[in-house]
Amino acid sequence: MLILDEAAANLDGESEEELACALDRARAGRTTLVIAHRLSTIRRADRVVVLEAGRVVEQGAFAELVARPDSRLAHLLAHQLGQ
């Protein structure tokens, strides 16, 4: 199991992308838990679990959650993008 806690928190966009590519190779065949506030860090995840106050408020595939305008993940993404 690979656990990443805010692994890209202090990286610029280019460095974050390089890290993401390296991590894609490293996590192949492994269960990986990624803890992140930057949503760009989790866009490659198979499954996303959104927590608020320690409770699961939604879960699913990243693309499915952001496609739903009422989802918490879509709201968080819009906020991070300044929309």
Key terms for this structure?
ABC-type oligopeptide transporter activity; 23% strand; 4 strands; two-stranded parallel sheet; Type_1_exporter; two-stranded antiparallel sheet; 83 residues; P-loop_NTPase; globular; 3 helices; 2 domains; alpha+beta; 35% helix
Explain this structure to me?
The mean pLDDT is 87. The strands form 2 sheets. A two-stranded parallel sheet has the order 1-2. A hairpin with a 2-residue loop joins strand 3 (48-52) and strand 4. It has helices spanning 13-26, 62-67, 72-80; strands at residues 2-5, 32-35, 48-52, 55-60. With 83 residues, it is an alpha+beta fold. The chain is globular and about 35 Å long. It has 2 domains: 1-45, no CATH class; 46-83, no CATH class. The chain has 3 helices and 4 strands, in the order βαβββαα.
